[in-house]
Amino acid sequence: MSARRPTDDTSARQERPFRVLRYRDFRVMWGAEILSQTGTQIQRVAVAWQVFELTHDPFQLGLLGLVRFVPLFLFGLAGGVAADRYDRRRTLILTQLALMGVAAAFAALTATGRITMPWIYGLTALSSLFTAVSAPTRQALIPALVPTVAMPAAMSMGVLAFQSAGMMGPALGGALVASTGIAISYAVDAITFGLVAISALVLRARPARAAPIVSGRAAALEGLRFLRETPVLLGTMVLDFLANFFGASTTLMPIFASEVLGGGPRTLGLLLAAPAAGAVAGATVMASRRPLARPGVGILGAIVVYGLCIAAFALSRNMLLSLAFLAVSGAADSVSVSQRHTLRNLVTPDRLRGRVAAAHATFAGGGPQLGEFEAGIVAAGWGAPAAVVAGGVGAALAAIVIAHKVPGIARFRWESRDPAPNGSEAPE
Known about the structure:
By secondary structure, this protein is mainly α.
């Protein structure tokens, strides 16, 4: 499909979000994304509770974030180069099989009683490494599955899938850990990765992709150069990193569940599911309306609300209030995420999408992982509530500072961009 330049009536011509499911390959990948992310969330609940049971140490919980961050930081751009250099469908299949192997190793070691903290950290690092390739590959594959005018709708539906899994996965993970044990939770995660590999195998879209003639290092530098020359895109990525760094609290949730609210694995599952429940509501609203004319304003405002709600949650000692604050933070986050993803895919040329998606994954994924390590250190000295309050306020302040330093974010309008072409099929 050839590219079409947006005009003043762009919003009128854009695909309505739920109608994007009429594209067969996108439907397949959308369902696969829900499965994969649900399994990943189950694994995160299992790992967090297992570390808490073994150590009862907030620093050890925070160290999980650092272990996830290091592979993402070291190999994130290389994963993007792989997504642009090699067949994306085949790359996705291989990474899903690798992630399935990691989850199976978690299950086997736990079931046989051989699991130790070094094993947990090592397998967590491997999972992060393979995700550093898988995530940009999935993102870069989407433009081949839908036409350009459907991209905002596809991004909104992608956020809805991610957040739906984020709502179901933790609750299911908490229930599985409490009722069947940690090993079964890991086994379920392994199955979901296998199903995603099968889904990728049946995709019909085969976008032509010639390998770059430049070296891997030069290809990575080309992607970084594009970001430097696109300040609105770079600014939103830096904001994403800062908001996730300061607002990271997931790794401390076992402490809130057990010591602050007096619960167990089921309480942990509810706390982890609450932000995703709010995010599903937010993503559903975004998916049922036209894209925001000025998405930058939405991004900035949503992150301020997100940070303040995280801080309010940390001060709460009531279960219902805690869940409510987390739900609102998730709704705000989903608004920000959907707008950032759409912006990124519309302003990035197809040949650079894998590398830019990898850079985004490094910012978006590295922020919370490094933030969880920082939260663990602060919590070890000052307590989990103080660490999360400081982080929430920091996230809100980061949005205000970035809005001042990069005013183009607030001024950005969709109509000012020319979307890139892609190789999607007709709807079915």
